[in-house]
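Researcher: Next entry in the queue.
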Amino acid sequence: EIKWIDCNIGSRLTMKYPGVILKGRKARGEVLSIALANNGQHQDTGAKMVHAADETTSNIISKSISIGTGRATYRGLVHVPKHLKNCKNNTECDALLINASSRTDTYPAITVRGTGNSVQHEASVSQVSAEQIFYMQQRGLTEAQAMSLSVNGFVNDLVRQFPMEYSVELKRLIELEMEGSVG
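Model: Structure for this entry, 183 residues:
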């Protein structure tokens, strides 16, 4: 079993695509990824899962946040050859756009040739609504605090799987990235 957890923040261009080859029967692979692209940044991230034995399981969960002119791209590859049976994959790719000039793209490549295999892919794009921000401001938060709370809530299910010291640091890094991105 392999579990890859990462968070990509900063850099003008990031290109990251960890690959897992599931060789043994009942092997498991998981990639959990967060990418945050701020003004002038492009986070080009994803994962590859190659099933090479029966009854293997893979899971890819990717969350991206695009701020200002930031761009996030997800590239995922899942491959299950014809001779394999009872393989499972779940891929989730969720993006959060902070404003109208933010951008996100998704390029899934899923090849399943055998029978009796289960593969599912889901992708979503959302924005923090003005109503959400207004609601939180009415409860005493600033616009920046409200936006930061929304973004941290968006990635919380993945951040909880990080070791505690990294979770705390990541939350603070997201807050720093959000400063100056609203208003």
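Model: The first strand starts at residue 2 and ends at 9.
Researcher: Noted, moving on.
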